[in-house]
Automatic annotation (TrEMBL):
Species of the source: bioreactor metagenome
InterPro entries: GntR_C (IPR011711), TF_FadR/GntR_C (IPR008920), Tscrpt_reg_HTH_GntR (IPR000524), WH-like_DNA-bd_sf (IPR036388), WH_DNA-bd_sf (IPR036390)
PROSITE patterns reported in the protein's UniProt record: HTH_GNTR (PS50949)
UniProt-listed SUPFAM superfamilies: GntR ligand-binding domain-like (SSF48008), Winged helix' DNA-binding domain (SSF46785)
Extent of the signal sequence: none
CDD domains: WHTH_GntR (cd07377)
HTH gntR-type domain mapped to chain residues: 29-96
Keywords, ordered alphabetically: DNA-binding, Transcription, Transcription regulation
The protein's name: Putative D-xylose utilization operon transcriptional repressor
Stored Pfam families: FCD, GntR
Gene Ontology molecular function terms on file: DNA binding; DNA-binding transcription factor activity
Length: 245
């Protein structure tokens, strides 16, 4: 059974809700979450590019579900800022802008710099180094797919927050990381692969050796280069998308 039994038993016994009704509502929640994840992946991967128009009916037919879980997913994504829904229920993927990119990198510098320094001050460098090395290998094996490469790239950076074990920091980072995947898909290309891997290698080497200053400099240099490249491209791509239907 794909639903957590401990949660099901808790609802059943503590609330006195019939077992069949518990199963029904959990299936409904799971379905809505699945639709949410599917639409969000479509946005991040640019299957649904910026300013693309989505329709509840088409999404429901494509996913083989009713409109209710689609509507719930759209509401959640609009609250997160990925979709815009007007009074006439027109649904549009949000546009991209230079200000989006600048804000994301400002957040990255604050979060990653401090997370890195905290990690290297608490004896977690060895564990972080092992996980970063594993993700660097995944990145190298993902060269055939831009989306796979960029998501692996973000997983490399996510190691800092995973190893620290701070759930609040990880929540903030996850939001920034999703933005970075979306922006990277629009402005990055395979010509940057080797440079990214080399820059990650410098970060990894400094972390493995426990060198705070070198790790910090390598990280900030990597972020600066990435931001500069994306800034040069984001203006062009932001005006190149048509509207879907």
């Amino acid at each position: 059974m794909p639903y957590p039994l401990d949660r099901m038993y808790l609802i059943h016994y503590s609330c006195g809700i019939p077992w069949e009704e518990v199963v029904y509502h959990l299936k409904k929640d799971n379905l809505a979450s699945g639709v949410y994840e599917r639409i969000k992946k479509g946005i991040l991967s640019l299957e649904f590019p910026p300013e693309f128009i989505l329709q509840e009916r088409n999404l429901a037919e494509e996913l083989g579900v009713s409109r209710t879980p689609v509507r719930e997913a759209v509401h959640r994504l609009s609250q997160e800022g990925w979709l815009r829904v007007n009074a006439r229920r027109n649904i549009q993927v949000r546009p991209v802008s230079v200000s989006d990119l600048r804000e994301v990198f400002q957040a990255r510098r604050i979060l990653e710099r401090d997370a890195l320094e905290l990690l290297l001050s608490t004896g977690l460098a060895r564990e972080a180094g092992r996980k970063m090395a594993a993700m660097a290998a995944v990145m190298n094996d993902s060269r055939g797919s831009l989306f796979s490469f960029i998501t692996a790239d973000q997983s490399f950076h996510s190691v800092l927050f995973l190893v620290l074990g701070n759930s609040v920091l990880r929540k903030f980072w996850n939001a920034v990381s999703e933005e970075m995947i979306w922006l990277g898909m629009q402005a990055m290309n395979e010509k940057r692969y080797d440079d990214v891997l080399e820059e990650h290698g410098k970060i990894l080497g400094a972390v493995e050796e426990g060198k705070k200053r070198a790790a910090r400099e390598a990280l900030l240099d990597h972020l600066e280069k990435t931001e500069d490249i994306l800034l040069r491209k984001i203006d062009d791509v932001s005006s190149s998308y048509g509207r879907g239907s």
